[in-house]
Amino acid sequence: MARRPEVFVRALSMEEGRKLQRVTRTAKDPVKLRRAIVVLMSGQGQAVRDITSLLQVSPDYVRDVIHAFNERGFAALDPKRKGGRPRTIGEQIRQRICLIARTSPADWGITAYATWSLAKLREHLLDRGTVVAISRETLRRILRAGGVSWQTTTTWKASTDPDFITKMHRILDLYDHPPTDGRVVCVDEFGPLNLQPRKGKAWRPVGRPLRQRATYNRYDGVMHMLAALDLATGKIFYRIRDRKRHREFLGLLKVLRARWPGEKLYVIADNFSPHRHPRVRAWCADNQVELVFLPTYGSWLNWIEAEFAALRYFALNGTDHRSHAEQNAAIEAYIRWRNARARPKTGFATDSPIRTWTHYPPKVA
């Protein structure tokens, strides 16, 4: 059988050669990169068999690329991908599937189970004739493309406070416009601080998570942290006590009062009964301390809650302290580290929908 004649790319100009070199250095598409290398090697005088050996492609592929470049130039380097097989399930049916997936089986008279799995949803779609045939993988992809995902059910506790909006605006105004005659301080209790192994996250070799004991005893009881966040400096001040009665809360207020003498304190607190104790109210009235109470079920308006979340994540999660002294030392070390890097607290929930509320929403998604 006679040998096929060699095929070479047409003569390349200097500018075309430079452009081919740029493509081979910068192309991210592997098809375009491979075609550019074929053309460049052919332009350097290398035969088809040499290009085939280097790139591990067929001789016909090399010849087709060279012929295409000779006919269409650099446009032949760009892959012309097709859209693939047309969809067998139309857009209207896909929307219908996503709608059904967001319903409950009870809505269709199914009492045997309370939630859909992919297999049960597929069976339901086939029984109703919504689709003729569909695999679980196709169903999963349709739901994902339609923005329907498998999520844990959450709860929302609606506030019953008739003055919710008034109280919320009062707190937001203190956050946005700190009073010139004093400072705003957010207070709350954190705990209970019990001794137990706590789950957490850590960088570990794949498949080898850090393990902790599963059984433990609570012989040493619990403790409580009473803390205050000064918005002017961003620093946290705290006390750890055995209990969290009005005596302990009043003790924290006295410490804050002594720290900033001569300034009025605007103390934001929730409706925990020790905060409203008559002795606490009487002392505050006599010592330039104004208690600003959060609306009922509105603890998320207390700026210190975010600090508690960080404290739990960085100081407690993933630990297994065997004594309160050891655990309290870990908390102290974190607070000391955090206060050294504290900045004034500004810009509370600036983009949140609560800024536009004129009445309490009946439902919050």
UniProtKB/TrEMBL annotation:
Domain Tc1-like transposase DDE: 183-319
InterPro entries hit by this protein: Homeodomain-like_sf, RNaseH-like_sf, RNaseH_sf, Tc1-like_DDE_dom, Transpos_IS630-like
Gene Ontology molecular function, alphabetical: nucleic acid binding
Name under which the protein is recorded: Transposase
The organism of origin for this protein: Kutzneria kofuensis
Lineage: Bacteria, Bacillati, Actinomycetota, Actinomycetes, Pseudonocardiales
